[in-house]
Amino acid sequence: MAFRFRRFREISKFLPRYFHSGLSCQDYRQHIIFPAALYMLPLPPICFGTNESILDRVCHVRRFAMASETTQVSPSDADLLIFLESTLDELEGPYHCWFNKCEGRKEFDRDGVFLVLAGAFPENSLSLDTDSAIMFERVKLLQQRYKELHIFGFQSCSSICSSATQARLFQTVMKEYITFPILLSSKNLTEMTSGACYILFKSFRNPNFYHEKSMDLGIISEAIEELLLNNKDMAIAQNFKSSLTKPSEVMKEPNFCSFVQNLFLYFPGCISVDENGNRLFLSDINHHRIIIFNANGRILDCIGSSPGFEDGEFEDAKLLRPAASFYMATEDCLYFVDSENHAVRRADLVNRIVETFYPRCGTDKKISSIWNWILDKLGMAGEVAQKSQEFDMESLNFPWHLMGSGSDLLIINHSFETLWLMDLTSGKIKEVVKGFPKIMEICGEMIMEKGSTLKQINPSCLQQKIDHNFSLDGPQYCSLMSSHAAFQNTVVFCDTVGQRLLKLDRGSGIISNLQFSNFGVLGLPYWLSCPLEHVYVGAGANQGAKVDHFQCFNVLPGKCDIAVKVNIPERTMLAEPLQEGCIWRQARGSAAEISGSDSVATSAEKVGVAQQWFDELDNLAFSTPGSELSVQDENRIQDTNFEETTTVLIDSAVHLSPGTSEVIIYAVLYLKLNRTWNSGEVPREEKARSIVDILNNDGSRKQERETCIQLMLEANTDLGEVVFMKPLHLRIRLECGDHPKTDTSKENVLIDSSIEVNVSLN
Questions:
Q1: Residue 139 has what pLDDT?
Q2: Could you give the count of Cα atoms lying within 13 Å of 200 in the half-sphere of its Cβ?
């Protein structure tokens, strides 16, 4: 038998090889004309040696889709797989550069199943065609459903290191909220990747190419499931085939976002108004929150605390890219679409409660956020969510626009290809309309009326967001209908390039930047919160997170006042004084609560959800001395020009017992360039470099830094008015000795002490 196999292999050298991604072993036989004697020989099982080249492995194929739905595998296709595999472990190379990928972390398992979205990323344009937007939505749906699927984008670029190219690519990442990495290549692979397509393969062999952009998602989904079922972990594959994963459990932040994330606004894309109540509702989309403010820009409240999918009070509710909103005056409620959660949410503005309007679920709204937090720490939150809630992803996918029409809600997706008519009473979808022309037939009059105010805005303010070759009734203009609103005698509209909110005075025609205040209401940003398991007392307590300052003190038992003096970075000034709501404190170890103290903080501002958790679970051992200000103190503060202040004070107090304890302080300062750097004498590029350098907390690569500078320069805005956040992470270790000895051993002497900590934010 071994001799017969050897003879077969020798003869097969003279037979033609066929590369076809849709052939099974049986189909492969039928395409090759074997001599009758050889056709009777049993074929040996296919196996791949460890030294076998990728090109040889591509020759062996299995059927994962219909042959008519894929293209033939050519040598150039094999060259692509060889190139893709060679780039996985290198962030940069002579012919490639990874974008939106975490440096120093392994993201891919070579033995896994890969889905590559190729050719859908614009190189020289900020506007996306409808087909590309739909492809992004489909890939993100697959990313949410199959956690074990490795997804990345691929784009051939003339200059992979061009900061202008990467700036435009980041605009796409920010707009579409792309969390998977993108591979940029300068190699000439256009023959294989002509036009946008999906590429599906397992372990860098047997690629399937889907060139039809509007291909049914079910075809690709079935092919993925078959590949996963043939993968190593059968149990995981079966689990993902049978159940749909909760979106918030698999979605993550884009990796290339540390710079823009620390701006006050991060893709402000949609706005609505309550004119009678003098309120505006701004969707700060990529910060996963809705900011409520008045006509003067004073922030009144904030809906949402962090990315996720959870109902509850405004401070506890979790959203995932909330987009358009619609104010219902009769209910004093705000309806809004939760885009990445494929949901419609409702915010009760009186009781400050967020609930899910669609899809309806059996989740108990009375369950407290603390209990949800405990379940999450025990690893049971996901299990409870699956039992209490079913997601029907095919019913409502990536809703973006929202309008009210009588007893119905009109919901349109981001690509303006699907309209859902939802009953406002029952919360059920009555009708689904596909295609832009049909959508305009049903609600075109409302869309055009809502978008009519665009004609009052100078086109130069919108030139970075749309292509003016499109007509006013085209999808490019209609997609902006939720980004502006008429309010009193002004038109307020979002600038997603400059990360700001603008207002047009209808009388004078003057466009100005809307200035915000009262930032303390927003609390501490969610990405600065310290996880509970990382807060402990030990030799490495300050490891694992960036710490601006770490210092040790020897103290005696008793009350200890802690005065922290923070020197703000040069070239900056405070946008407004530091508020108590922007400070997060925690004590660990031998620290104990001060009970009945008059100096306990009684700030009227709401604080972040993380602070509330620790308040309720741990009874934080902090107080803020002198929180009650006298009339003279208030007048003194008003007379002081806080903008010229170079030092910020953070006062705290803790009660200590013998032992070791640690005090952790997080704070966020809202800053902007000072008057010297905001003068006309400083070049605009220098202003952009200054802001990027101040916000470059993670030591990004030079290329990323240049891309961020390019983003600042492309924004047609006064850089001196840009408000950004500078975080502070401070850890103080306190070594507390024994109580001083007294004449009687029954008494413990407590000694009041104070320490001063000086911190400089670079």
A1: 93
A2: 27
Residue ranges of the alpha helices (H) in 479-586?
none
Encoded tokens for 467: 């292509």
Q: Starting at the earlier edge strand, list the strands of the sheet with 490-495.
A: 484-487, 490-495, 500-505, 511-513
Place of tokens 């005090």: 663
- The answer to whether 661 and 588 are in contact (CB under 8 A) is yes
Give the pLDDT score at 741. Answer: 77
293 contacts 279 by C-beta, under 8 angstroms: yes
CA distance 288 to 307: 6
Cα separation, 399 vs 410, in Å, equals 10
Say which residues have a Cβ less than 8 Å from residue 715's Cβ, sequence separation at least 6: 464, 495, 497, 498, 499
Distance CA 568, CA 566 (A): 6
What's the pLDDT tens digit per position in 335-383? 999 999 999 999 999 999 999 999 986 444 444 455 565 655 555 554 4
* Nearest-angstrom CA–CA distance, 743 and 308: 59
Question: According to CATH, where is 2.40.128.630 located in the chain?
Answer: 263-517
Pick the CATH number of 69-250 from 3.40.30.10, 3.40.640.10, 1.20.1200.10, 3.40.630.100: 3.40.30.10
Rounded distance, CA 353 to CA 622, Å?
29
Q: What is the pLDDT of residues 81-91, one digit of tens each?
A: 889 999 998 88
Q: What is the CATH number of domain 263-517?
A: 2.40.128.630
Q: Given a cut of 50, is residue 634 above it in pLDDT?
A: no
Tokens at 158, concatenated: 């003339």
d(CA 25, CA 61): 7
Q: What are 408's two structure tokens?
A: 């119905």
Rounded CA-CA distance 191/167 in Å is 26
Give the separation between CA 91 and CA 98, rounded to whole angstroms. 5
- Rounded to whole angstroms, the Cα distance separating 606 from 528 reads 17
What whole-number distance in Å separates Cα of residue 681 and Cα of residue 674? 13
Closest CA to 20 of 76, 56, 51, 62: 62
Q: What band does 399 get if pLDDT is binned at 50, 70 and 90?
A: very high
Six token digits for residue 672: 């902007």
For residue 568, give the DSSP letter: P
Residues in the chain: 762
For residues 121-125, average pLDDT: 72
Output the CA torsion sign for 103, 108, 109, 110.
negative
pLDDT at 111: 87
| 3-state SS, residue 38 | helix
What residue spans in the chain does CATH classification 3.40.30.10 cover?
A: 69-250
Distance (Å, rounded) from C-alpha 165 to C-alpha 97? 12
Contact indicator for 526, 479 with CB cutoff of 8 Å: no
Who's near 513: CB < 8 A, 6+ residues apart?
Answer: 500, 501, 502, 717, 718, 721
Longest Cα pair distance anywhere in the chain, in angstroms?
Answer: 110
Q: Write phi, then psi, for 508 (nearest 5 degrees).
A: -90, -20
The secondary structure of residue 195, as a DSSP letter, is S
- Beta-ladder partners of 433: 419
Cβ-contact 412, 434 below 8 angstroms: no
Among the listed residues 522, 565, 572, 528, the one whose alpha carbon sits nearest the alpha carbon of residue 547: 528
Q: What is the pLDDT of residues 544-580, one digit of tens each?
A: 456 778 999 999 998 999 999 999 998 999 999 999 8
